[in-house]
Please model this.
Amino acid sequence: MDFALTDEQRMLVHTIRQFVYDELIPLEDDIEATGELAADRARAIFEKSRDLGFYAMNIPEEFGGGGLSAVETMLVEEQFGHCKDILIRRAFGNVYEVLLEGDSAQKERWLLPTVRGERTCSIAITEPEAGSDAAGISTRAVRTDEGWTLNGGKYFVSDGIYSDFFVVSAVTDPDARPRHISLFLVDKSLPGVRLGQDQKMMGLAGSSHVELFFDDVHLEPGTLIGGEGNGLRLALTALGRVRLAQVGARAIGKASRLLGYMADYANQRVQFGKNIGQFQMIQEMLADSAIEINRSRLLLHRAAYALDAGEDYRTWISMVKVDAAETLGRVADRAVQVFGGTGYTHGFPVERMYRDARIYRIFDGTSEIHRTVVAAGVLKGGAKTWDIGA
Model:
């Protein structure tokens, strides 16, 4: 068992980290002030990232991506997590692995242009009455002689204003048991596709989260991806990878950045004639944060190993989702406490990162839901979910 990074992995982490801190983090103050990332800056960071080979690193090389393993993807996603969501999206791309399920024509039309950065995709699964319960959707796709007719609506579609197509879940056979849910690739430009309001959040400045409506949208037969009735399995697989990388790894990155701020401030801030880092209460917060970050990272890499090895990784991903999200929440809270009034003041990184951190326990399945998944794994899988000797 070797926990050391290879020279190539260490260089990858260092290079990505330097790009994040040199090119992206300096843009955060303006995004927070204006609520958006200017189009010219978005284009500039995309071009720099693409030229360095940082775009779509999770996609196999045969399709133009970086070809990273799951473990290597977690290493880079942790570095991505040091900066704001909108900067990650524009610089590195959110190219969802579910697009790999397409046939050759679908890959040519949707996957390859997305890997090149010419198109942008959003996942449209959540509905007002179907959040963590992805099977509870009501959006319908009805088969016709020419393909399908799509009706319904989606909620909290991240990056929906910017994206030009969506992966949409819809019920295709409501009478089947379980109901047939399928996935469709839906271009924003199609008649009947309509954006609703952008739902403003307490954090995540610059990222849109829109309502999306479908009014008798005609879909060609070639828009169905992965076969009829396979949508829930594909969606949960895609969301599992999202939870591991975009929630788990990025949460650890954010927590690491916050702990860096805390340690620096504890060494510099003087009260009662000595650095506050010499006070045991402050030391406890620093120590607990370091322990929890390292624990979450080890759990993340164990889950990524399971993914690379072809093992059943579902329980591991839920463990990561709970642990990393809640670690970030605790570290962010401690950071505000260490910084005191400054940590609660607009315009400082700790304050905005505290707001950004809160969503991690909610999106892509709440902590409560993922605990039920872990419990089901324990009950069905037995000791192998916790005992290394099982």
